[in-house]
Amino acid sequence: MEPKRLDKCPLHGAGARPDYLVGRRLERVLASWHLYSTVPLTGPLDLWLIDSEEAATHVTPGSDWCLIVETSAPSEGYEMAESGRVEVAPIHSEAPFADHLGETILGVHNEADPDTGRRALELTFEAGRVRCETWSGDLRLSSK
């Protein structure tokens, strides 16, 4: 019998094992934002980490509050009529990943729940760490 992966979401599957990022340089970070007028309503909806191998790692909360980590190309923005729009753009200078652009990823760490799968992903850089986690269905970013 194969052991159960703790970071495997019962609804979305295991996704990518992000340890392939170790040793790669973070070149760009794109994020999707829900905008109403010109003001973001929340933090980013999704992130795409573009590394030195041009791989795009997508990080987003799942519908069951797991944290999905997969390899996929960034999506396009779209209009939602009177509800605003979703815009995909490079991160702003105040986002936690901005301080680590051009740095090599030294380590990755998953936190998981046996029932819901991956809950957090932490990336370690020489100058600090960035944590991506799902909280109440939202993507939360923080740095240490």
Quick overview of this protein structure:
This protein has 144 residues and is mostly beta strands. 0% of the residues lie in helices and 47% in strands.
Q: What do these coordinates show?
A:
- It contains no helices and eleven strands.
- It has 144 residues and is mainly beta.
- The chain has one domain.
- The strands form two sheets. Strands 1, 2, 3, 4, 5, 6 and 7 form a seven-stranded antiparallel sheet that branches. The protein has a four-stranded antiparallel sheet with strand order 8-9-10-11, with no helix packed on it.
- The model has no long low-confidence stretch (mean pLDDT 86).
Write out key terms for the chains shown.
single chain, 144 residues, mainly beta, seven-stranded antiparallel β-sheet, four-stranded antiparallel β-sheet
Uncertain spans: none
Gyration radius from CA atoms, angstroms:
15 Å
The helix-strand sequence is EEEEEEEEEEE
Overall average pLDDT? 86
Percent of residues in helical segments? under 10%
Number of domains: 1
Most strands sheet: 7 strands, antiparallel
Counting DSSP E segments of at least 2 residues, the number of strands comes to 11
Number of helices: 0
Amino- and carboxy-terminal Cα gap: 39 Å
- Tell me the fraction of residues in β-strands, as a range: over 45%
Q: What is the overall shape?
A: globular
**Which structural class fits the helix and strand makeup?**
mainly beta
Secondary-structure map with pairings?
Elements: E1 26-36, E2 39-40, E3 46-51, E4 56-61, E5 67-71, E6 78-79, E7 85-90, E8 107-113, E9 117-125, E10 128-135, E11 138-143
